[in-house]
Amino acid sequence: MADNDFPGWHGTTIIGVRKGGKVVxxxxxxxxxxxxVIKGTARKVRRIxxxxxxxxxxxxxxxxDAFTLLERLxxxxxxxxxxxxxxxxxxxxxxxxxxxxQKLEAMLIVSDGKDLxxxxxxxxxxxxxxxxxxxxxxxxxxxxxxxxxxxxxxxAEQIAREAMAIAADICVYTNGNLTVETISG
Length: 185
What we know:
It is a single chain. By secondary structure, the chain is α+β, with helices and mostly antiparallel strands. The chain contains five helices and twelve strands. It has helices spanning 63-79, 84-97, 99-102, 139-149, 156-170; strands at 9-10, 13-19, 22-27, 31-33, 36-39, 45-48, 55-61, 106-111, 116-119, 125-126, 132-136, 179-184. The strands form three sheets. A five-stranded antiparallel β-sheet has the order 6-7-8-9-10. Strands 11-2-3-12 form a four-stranded antiparallel β-sheet, covered by helices on one side. A hairpin with a 2-residue loop joins β4 and β5 (36-39). α1 (63-79) packs across α2 (84-97) and α4 crosses α5. The longest helix has 17 residues, at 63-79. The termini are far apart.
């Protein structure tokens, strides 16, 4: 089967919302291959505690690639405990320059409760401008909804859940089976 004939994996929406001294990262559970839902209850948001410091991470893209990146992030955090920004930059540098890592197809949203970053394979460590960020198939829908909800009285978790519900209503590659993790700064 030629590369352009392969339908491709789709189906992840991850949102990160920072508000009121808390960060919430929420992810849906859908994994699709072409027009078929392969799994509806995948867990794409994880809490890790390298060096005794909690970090929440959500991933979009290839699961095996994302787990490889999460393991690398954990290693970086163990070497620099409590320094999420430094560990994220080191991971992004490795991802950009290492021949093996360059082939990985995933993105991460990470937070220690204070900082919130998107880490990409292009070597980017991006901090959201408006305290909301999203990645994946329905990421743009969740991002738009989350930004619209930021000026309400809703807390970070309510915003994340409502934004994900809106994304699930619009994006066929996003469902309402959420994994939600909250971390305080």
